[in-house]
């Protein structure tokens, strides 16, 4: 019998769908392959790293987002996020400094334009570094003009470093001073039946007070008023110096700002001009015309210009055989393990220290610290690595940036010299442990925990059980031991008695000026001065280069970093920033960030013992 049967209709539909899906998949992969191939050919045969800087060019310094020591996150992640418009806007301080340094002696650069509108924040420490750099640049005789539409304190501080400040005709200028406000959660946590177990040493160790109080403690209030007032006075003094104004004029204005605006009929720009805070009111078209007159006109932009990041990269010179001072950036919270840039990892940061130790061309190391601390254990791991580097014969100098407190001070204290800005937040020498439990919260919805264990500590670290007395005693004893170890190490490194250290410790935060008076810091100065001191200590004179010690990307990683942005843009995805970056901090966001830090060691199965001040330099 002959069979002439065909597959039923469902089978034929499935086979047709599968063939279509296969064809579509092959087409997508072929398109992607052609895009990658075209980019590779372009990179290999048509790209050029040479950047031409024409004569009569204006250097444009327009910081984007927050000014930082180093970018946050892995390079590939940043490249992808930038292409997708989801990047965190950041500007590296080193790029601005390098551009100003090279432009001072470059005859092709005739002037500098500082744009302030994209700047989100500039912490007091970095204000010191930039003011020094602009002062050196202005000695070349070239003009610096600052222009912006809306200037708050950070933007105005940057603008004040210029020869003249030009405010947009419809712009505004506002100073509201520095403040330190936090959310306090005790009443809310009590309503949720959360059992807060906090262990700490130090009268001023206020990092986790919001979890046990509904308001600021008097000790924290006194300490905060001291360092916050010091920072604000520094801001007033520096702006007055830059603008050639009596500081009393600024004090009077900031104390009666609303009255001054009301007297100007609400015209903030006119008030700023009348009070001498700005030199001219200039619209953007007028700005372009003015700069074209002093530089070279350009039909597209109005004047010939180059951005500071491109210029810094084009001006970078490298002499392979020169002696070097290595800079290791330690920015962000201190945690255990391997961490990306923007976070200090006990393993990743220690690896950079060992990398500097093995490099014979690096004769001295500057550790650039910008951290409020974190894990006490990770801090001690990094300190030990730095001590090993010192013992190898290479001088180790610490340069404190905006914040180097608690764990940030822990990793800094053993250096041959400790440098800070007058406005650096440092100290906060203290320890705390935090372990909330939720047994009563669960009981509210009828969930209970019960069982047996073999020792008094069995099951003690369960978040669904009340923390028993043996565990409480253990934690408090361990925290007190950690504090004694901390102040003993400070006493050893700073050549002080333990009693003397305890008097300036207790978790209290100091500014750099205050810390120097108390023996916690050696010198006040910039990163450049700290690097020069490291070079002198190594005996290499002035003929040296500065090298940032960073993890080297493999050829494979570098290829994808270069390709990621171009590939995604070719797919037609517009670059737009998320709204989240512009939104004010939401209720509870600070609590989430603090808890994330405290429980950063949760994967290891043990609670975190923290040396952290949870303080942040105001902007």
Automatic annotation (TrEMBL):
The chain crosses the membrane at residues 21-45. One of its GO terms (cellular component) is membrane. GO terms for molecular function: serine-type peptidase activity. This is Signal peptide peptidase SppA. InterPro entries: ClpP/crotonase-like_dom_sf, Pept_S49_pIV, Pept_S49_SppA, Peptidase_S49, S49_SppA_67K_type_N, S49_SppA_C. The active site is at 205 (proton donor/acceptor), 406 (nucleophile). GO terms for biological process: signal peptide processing. It comes from Wenzhouxiangella sediminis. Residues 137-291, 389-539 form the Peptidase S49 domain. Keywords: Hydrolase, Membrane, Protease, Serine protease, Transmembrane, Transmembrane helix. NCBIfam families: SppA_67K (TIGR00705), SppA_dom (TIGR00706). It is found in: Membrane. PANTHER family: PEPTIDASE S49 DOMAIN-CONTAINING PROTEIN (PTHR33209:SF1), PROTEASE 4 (PTHR33209). Pfam families: Peptidase_S49. Belongs to the peptidase S49 family. Its main location: membrane.
């Amino acid at each position: 019998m002959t069979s002439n049967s065909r597959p039923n209709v469902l089978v034929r539909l499935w086979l047709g769908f599968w063939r279509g899906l296969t064809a579509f998949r092959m087409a997508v992969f072929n398109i992607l392959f052609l895009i990658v191939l075209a980019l590779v050919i372009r990179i290999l045969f048509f790209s050029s790293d040479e950047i031409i800087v024409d004569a009569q060019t204006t250097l444009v310094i327009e910081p984007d987002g927050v000014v930082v020591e180093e970018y946050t996150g892995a390079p590939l992640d940043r490249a992808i996020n930038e292409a997708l418009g989801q990047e965190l806007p950041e500007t590296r301080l080193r790029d601005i400094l390098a551009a100003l340094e090279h432009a001072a002696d470059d005859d092709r650069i005739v002037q500098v334009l500082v744009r302030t509108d994209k700047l989100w924040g500039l912490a007091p420490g970095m204000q010191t570094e930039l003011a020094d750099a602009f002062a050196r640049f202005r000695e070349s005789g070239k003009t610096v003009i600052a222009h912006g539409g809306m200037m708050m304190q950070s933007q105005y501080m940057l603008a004040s470093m210029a020869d003249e400040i030009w405010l947009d005709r419809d712009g505004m200028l506002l100073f509201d001073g520095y403040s330190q406000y936090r959310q306090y959660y005790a009443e809310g946590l009590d309503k949720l039946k959360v059992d807060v177990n906090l262990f700490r040493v130090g009268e001023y160790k206020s990092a986790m007070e919001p979890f046990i109080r509904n308001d600021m403690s008097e000790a924290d209030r006194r300490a905060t008023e001291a360092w916050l007032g010091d920072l604000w006075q520094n801001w007033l003094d520096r702006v007055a110096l830059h603008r050639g104004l009596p500081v009393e004029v600024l004090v009077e204005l900031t104390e009666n700002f609303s009255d001054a605006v009301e007297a100007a009929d609400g015209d903030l720009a006119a008030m700023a001009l009348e009070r001498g805070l700005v030199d001219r009111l200039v619209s953007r078209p007028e700005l372009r015309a003015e700069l074209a007159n002093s530089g070279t006109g350009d039909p597209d932009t109005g004047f010939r210009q180059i951005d500071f990041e491109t210029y810094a990269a084009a001006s970078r010179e490298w002499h392979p055989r020169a002696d070097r001072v290595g800079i290791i950036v330690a920015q962000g919270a201190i945690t255990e393990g391997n961490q990306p840039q923007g976070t200090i990892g006990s393993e990743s940061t220690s690896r950079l220290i060992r990398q500097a130790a093995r490099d014979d061309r690096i004769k001295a190391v500057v550790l650039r610290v910008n951290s409020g601390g974190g894990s006490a254990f990770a801090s001690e791991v990094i300190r030990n690595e730095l001590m090993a580097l010192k013992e190898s014969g290479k001088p180790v100098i610490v340069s404190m940036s905006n914040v180097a407190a608690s764990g940030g001070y822990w990793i800094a204290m053993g250096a041959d010299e400790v440098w800070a800005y007058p406005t650096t937040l440092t100290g906060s020498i203290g320890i705390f442990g935090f372990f909330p439990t939720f047994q009563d919260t669960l009981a509210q919805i009828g969930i209970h925990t019960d069982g047996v264990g073999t020792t008094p500590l069995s099951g003690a670290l369960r978040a669904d059980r009340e923390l028993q007395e043996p565990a409480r005693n253990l934690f408090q004893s361990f925290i007190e031991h950690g504090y004694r170890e901390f102040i003993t190490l400070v006493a050893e490194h700073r050549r002080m008695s333990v009693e003397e250290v305890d008097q300036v410790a207790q978790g209290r935060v100091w500014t750099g000026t205050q810390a120097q008076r108390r023996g916690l810091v050696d010198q006040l100065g910039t990163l450049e001065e700290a690097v020069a001191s490291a070079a002198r200590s190594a005996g290499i004179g002035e003929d040296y280069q500065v090298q940032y010690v960073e993890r080297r990307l493999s050829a494979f990683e570098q290829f994808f970093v270069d390709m990621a942005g171009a590939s995604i843009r070719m797919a037609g995805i517009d670059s737009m920033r998320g709204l989240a970056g512009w939104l004010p901090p939401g209720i509870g966001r600070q609590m989430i960030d603090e808890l994330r830090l405290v429980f950063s060691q949760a994967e290891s199965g043990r609670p975190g013992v923290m040396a952290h001040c949870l303080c942040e330099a105001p902007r």
